[in-house]
Design goal:
17% helix, extended, alpha+beta, two-stranded antiparallel sheet, two-stranded antiparallel ribbon
């Protein structure tokens, strides 16, 4: 997905069976969960999103904590961007693509 070759999300979860390629009858086994999560079912078979690669200096790299738990949930985007590269454009219907282009122009977001 990240290298830009996949144009849609997979329709099956990554893990479709036991790691040993057989059913596991042991209820105490530490096998990975065999069911897909909510994120997979929401994306299953849908067109891929736009992905970008942003380069920032290590001194501006700041983790953003979750307000409730304090666990890191991402990085701060309040940093000077040294380089930005589009890895893949989103697969949008033509009418959405033209509206997005107008919005980018209006907000002066075109590189």
């Amino acid at each position: 997905m990240l290298n830009g070759t996949a144009m849609q999300y997979r329709t099956r979860p990554v893990l479709t069976g036991h790691p040993a390629s057989r059913p596991c009858p042991d209820p105490s086994c530490h096998c990975p969960v065999q069911t897909s999560d909510k994120g997979h079912s929401a994306r299953s078979g849908r067109p891929a999103d736009r992905y970008e690669s942003w380069m920032i200096s290590a001194r501006h790299y700041r983790l953003v904590p979750h307000p409730g738990t304090g666990a890191p949930v991402g990085i701060s985007l309040n940093a000077p961007i040294l380089r930005r590269r589009v890895l893949r454009e989103a697969a949008l219907p033509p009418d959405h693509a033209s509206l997005l282009a107008l919005l980018r122009t209006a907000l002066d977001l075109e590189p």
